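Quick one, T. Sequence first:
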Amino acid sequence: MALNVFDHDEYRPPVWKSYLYQLQQEAPHPRRVTCTCEVENRPKYYGREYHGMISREEADQLLSQAEGSYLIRESQRQPGTYTLALRYVFGIQTRNFRLYHDGKHFVGEKRFESIHDLVTDGLITLYIETKAAEYIAKMTINPIYEHVGYTTLNQEPTLKKHLPLHSPEAPDGPAPAKEGGNAEERLTSLVRRATLRESDLAPKYEKVHNFKVHTFRGPHWCEYCANFMWGLIAQGVKCADCGLNVHKQCSKVVPNDCQPDLRHVKKVYSCDLTTLVKAHNIKRPMVVDMCIQEIEARGLQSEGLYRISGFSELIEDVKLAFDRDGEKADISSGVYEDINIITGALKLYFRELPIPLITYDAYPRFIEAAKITDADKRLESLHEALRLLPPAHCETLRYLMAHLRRVIQCAKENLMSSENLGIVFGPTLMRAPDLDAMTALNDIRYQRLVVETLITNEDVLF
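Structure tokens:
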């Protein structure tokens, strides 16, 4: 008998709360108060709702017809600036908002194609945030996220376990057609998190969500608190890496447990390191593992290893291969005979990381450690600095340093010392966070010293 995705003991669909949705349906509709006479110098991006330079009292009188009424007037106090006058939702007062236009209309963060849309969204927001102020303040209490979110990852359910099992002899009948995509693709981000199971071997790296303001088409509910996401546009935020949809205020309390979805992570190079390893459920980026394995298999004794550059066009080919094929990329000697192409691709990967391997936050501590003249104290300081790195960064750095130590063990053949490798990898692994040019230039020698010390003391520091 086929198992249900919604296993009774492990995953239960959330109960979406309808209160805020009902309030949005009740919100007043915009009522444009048109000007009956021709107004001189009317801005071309305003219509008949523009009344020219009238007083607040005159505007208030014109808006007394019904709640949701609105007009635009030029400010008497500051000519050349414009005000949106809006009859407040309970019909007892007029609200005045400074109105701006830069190709789109706005009074705050949201930008609208039309005044009508701006007023519609404003009326919804005013109505809901007035009627349900106390309710909204308590939305994050007892979130559904704790019951159906990533906390389930440490339990037994797996996607394979929950999906229906089909075989030619299955008594439940033939497998359904694949026209709508497979079952995994049809799962929402919330169900995906509830049914996903991380590999027992892969480390459970912490990752913050990459939230971006998002406009949802059609009704949407917050996947943290289960409440409706109100408004016409920019109703909430969406994680660009895992697809989680939440209110902006809920995003501040969502745990740092983003589980990137490969449908959102489209490339390997220029992708955040932690995002990449979590999306592929691996310890280190496949670029690092595969390039190092290839180099150690056939290139450790190559003269000038990492110092000599390969052809840039072929290095770019390797990059495109990883972006396209991931761990299935072919970087063997039959395709790229010159080992310098592989070393170049590895260095390029580190250079293109949006957050360097030695992160911007940890950078000052590593530079301070390099300035310490006492060798033992320098090692102690570097050890403390390593603890500031995100786990995925630290693991990748450890693996790279162990590899570079094996490179210098073949220094008689490849002529690469720890100092030479420090010169190559210092600026590759470390980038100064917004320092002036002179300071950044002075830091180069300390970057070299950091890498050199990490290589020679890899067995102690990691």
